[in-house]
Every structure is written in C-alpha cells, then in structure tokens.
Amino acid sequence: MGVDFAFLDSGTGGIPYMLSLKEKVPNASCVYLGDTAHFPYGQKTQKEVAAAAAQAVRLMQKKWKPKTLIVACNTISVTALDDLRARFPSLPIVGTVPAIKLAAKVTANKRVGLLATNATVRHPYSQKLIEDFASDCAVFKRGDPDLIEFIEKKLFTASREERMAAVRPAVDYFASNDCDTIILGCTHFTHIADDIQAAAGDKVRVIDSREGVANQALRVFPGQVPGQDAAQTDGSAGSKGAALLGQEKKSSQGQAVSQDKNAPADKSFFFTAATREQEEEYRAMCARFGIPYGGLV
Question: Is residue 26 classed exposed, middle or buried when 0-12, 13-18 and 19+ CB atoms within 10 A define those classes?
Fold first, then answer.
C-alpha cells in the first residue's frame, strides 16, 4: 500500500512541516528521511542537489512507496523541483519555497528579511518570487550556513543561552536594516522560530510556509475527493481527510497505523548517515517531538 506522505530534507529541518500536516490529518501515515549523507544541500551546485535529491527519492520509493512526496527543503525546491517531477512523473511532489508572498502582505514598512541557505538566497527563482510578489518591498537576504549547521548538529542538546547566541547574528543583521518581517526560508529555521521571535522582539513578524505546504499536499494527494468544496481545498481536514485517508487505523496512542505490515511506524525519522554524536542528537530530537527513531537507512 505504501505510506500516505513522505517528507524529504537534508536533515531535521522538515520535521515541523510533517507535524503541521499531521495536525490537519491525524489519520495520515507519514515517514521522514533526512538525507544527512549529503548535508548541507545549501552549499552544493544545482547539479549536485538534483542528483542527491533524486537518489533519496528513489530510496524512499523503494522502501516506503509514498503516495505523495513533500520536499521539506527550500534549497531542493528552488533548485531541483522541476527535475524531480520530470524524473518521477507518477509521484505527486510538493515543494517548499520562501513565504515571500505572505511577507509582502503582512509587512508594514515594506522592509523584509529573507533568512535561508546560500543556495536559496542566490538562486534566480528566489529573485523571481521577490519580483512577482514583493516588488514594492526592500528584501534583505542572508545565507546562514553556520546557523543551519548549529540546528542540525547541536540544537536539541543546546541550552537556551546557546540557542539565543546562535540566532543573534541573523536577528541583528535584519534589525540593522529595519526589517519588520523575517522569512524563514530554510526549513531548519522553523525549529528555532520561537528563539528568533524572542530575539527580534514583538514588533517583528517571523513567518514560514508550513501552512501553505500542508494545504498543497492535501490538494495533490491522489485520493482527494472530487468536487470538494472551497473549505476542504483550503486545507481543512474535514470530510476530505476522512475520505482520502479512511483506510488507516489508529493506535491506542492516536497515531496512524498502516494496514501494510512492512510500513514504518507513523512519523518515523530516518537518516542516511550520522556519527555517533549526531545519532544522539537525532535521538534527542525524536524524544522531544515524540516521534519514532527509525535510524539509518
């Protein structure tokens, strides 16, 4: 049968995106792969990103046969999404791109910060999003590989003081440019959205694309109900969730249980490479979020 939704990122960044979707459709079965063997994607060429992502998708198809794939990685999405869709035409694939359109709507002073990987801030696609949806805004871009490295390898065992020190350079950069809105343009940053918000203060809005990605994943799911109304299309689980995911059962803990005996435990986190120290970090993350630790694949 396969899992309903599979999530792909270079590491742990897309976990909040998976949990956001699960809030909408608790009965959906999900699995997560962090392609840590190729971390960080944001420092690679477009060709390298496309090749690594395609290799990961082939692995996910072989092991879990997902019905829909969510690329919970801005870098893969802006550099290789079209390539993945061409390579895997029968698999619905949802990308994750910076929430520039939303930022342009909510900013009061038209000064917006984009915090992302180097690959995302430099890519022409990001500039096109700015031109299409935020042409009346000044957008200040910051690639921050050091912060991404911290999140992937140290965050879940770090103290609050260490977390705040890690986000301070980015927050100070956007403050120096009088930005009243900060876009989290790398999924890793959603893990520390609260820390960034605390450091930036109440007058700054910190936004990401979790809501839009979850809604789009539900729209393209191959079992979606024909003729569903606008409310359902907008992403409410409603009868749509029950209809398209009615084949799932729930465990006594409320997690989805696939009827496929070979399927992984719901919300399992897997990775493609890790040192012993990184494995401990991943175990700590899984414990924090209450998700199964799947381990190395």
Answer: middle
Instruction: Name beta bridge partners: 71.
Output: 8
> Are 197 and 204 a contacting pair, CB within 8 Å?
yes
pTM comes to 0.89
CA-angle at 230, arms to 227 and 232, nearest 5°? 80
CA proximity to 224, closest of 248, 246, 244: 244
| pLDDT, tens only, 259-296 | 567 789 999 999 999 999 999 999 999 999 999 999 99
pLDDT greater than 80 at residue 216: yes
DSSP E strands: which ranges in the chain? 5-9, 30-34, 68-71, 93-94, 111-116, 138-143, 181-184, 205-207, 249-250, 256-257, 268-271, 293-296
- Among 140, 209, 131, which residue's Cα sits nearest to residue 180? 140
Q: Please identify every residue annotated as catalytic.
A: 73, 186
> If 0-12 CB within 10 Å is exposed, 13-18 middle and 19+ buried, where does residue 64 land?
buried
DSSP state of 204: S
Give, in order, the Cα–Cα distances in Å from 150 to each of 42, 134, 146, 281, 296: 14, 30, 6, 11, 21
